[in-house]
Amino acid sequence: MLKVEHVTKYYDQLKAVDDLSFEVQDGEIFGLLGVNGAGKTTTFRMIIGLLEPTSGKITLDGKPIDYHVTDQIGFLTEERSLLTKLTVKEQILYYATLKGMKEEDILKQLDKWLERFQISEYKDRKIKELSKGNQQKIQFISAVIHNPKLLILDEPFTGLDPMNVELFMKVIREFKEKGSSIIFSSHRMEHVELFCEKLVILLKGKSVLAGELQQIKKDYRKKNIHIVGDVEEKEIKNIKGVLAVEKTSQEMIVKIAEDKVIDDVFEVVKKGKHITSFRVEDPTLNEIFLSKVGEAYEK
Question: In terms of CATH architecture, what is 223-282?
């Protein structure tokens, strides 16, 4: 289990991370989210031991993170960190050796992962000759080849088409099932919702929202009603508690402040024509993110 306890980090007078605390259990996928400059990268660098916190502590299975522990951590960075003049084989040998693996084991695992990602023919090709998507696969392999206890994934789906996103998702879930602790960060909130049971949203280094995803949605109270059919839009807008009405080519989406507004909307919808669907859904994580970050900026 990873524990981040009351961690603060200053760069001279700039407070990059402000009293941050969270835990990531074994076999759990945890979301660490925020706008650019929120403190995510600094947090990642402290977790992997590249930076020392100004105050607070970070432990993995109760042990401080130092060079005795970092071999148990895999980190896929948002920025490309590949040595493009090396071949795929040379690149993975270099990174995996730094993680304490023997060459024989590295090559055996490399063949397995290249086959898994359907790029075995690129083993002796230089990194710079690969497409962006295939470079991302190599970067992912470098992060997981040593079977890490803690896996940090920062924008892991960059450059991938939908088929390969599904492949990455399957592999990530397999690490979860094996008991790895996983920190997942992405600006694509729909990806976060697919994976994360718990999350923290950072703004200017400070947590502005934290907890279990389902409870966060429940506490947010606002809901979206999806209606398919001919409904009087003006009458819907006049209902107290209706925050907004959006129309797409297929449906009307009514955003409401709380559950008790549902019945009032339904009474209007009953008077409509050709109603084929009336569906109430929780807000998306993207809506909650924009709301909470917006509120924090306004304070």
Answer: 2-Layer Sandwich (3.30)
Per domain, the residue ranges of the chain are: 2-217, 223-282
The domain defined by 2-217 folds into Rossmann fold (3.40.50)
CA nearest to 226, candidates 177, 269, 162, 289: 269
Contact 223, 282 (CB under 8 A): yes
Write the CA distances from 187 to 5, 202, 250, 295, integer angstroms: 25, 12, 27, 18
Dist. CA 263–CA 269, nearest whole Å: 10
pTM of the full predicted structure?
A: 0.87
Helix (H, G, I), strand (E, B) or coil at 234: helix
For residue 97, give Cα distances in angstroms to 60, 145, 146, 179.
Answer: 22, 11, 9, 23
How many Cβ atoms from other residues are within 10 Å of residue 79's Cβ?
9
* Angle 139-145-149 from CA coordinates, rounded to 5°: 110
> What does the mean pLDDT of the chain come to?
93
Tell me the pLDDT tens digit for each residue of 141-170.
Answer: 999 999 999 999 999 998 899 999 999 999
The 10 Å Cβ neighbour count of residue 62 is: 7
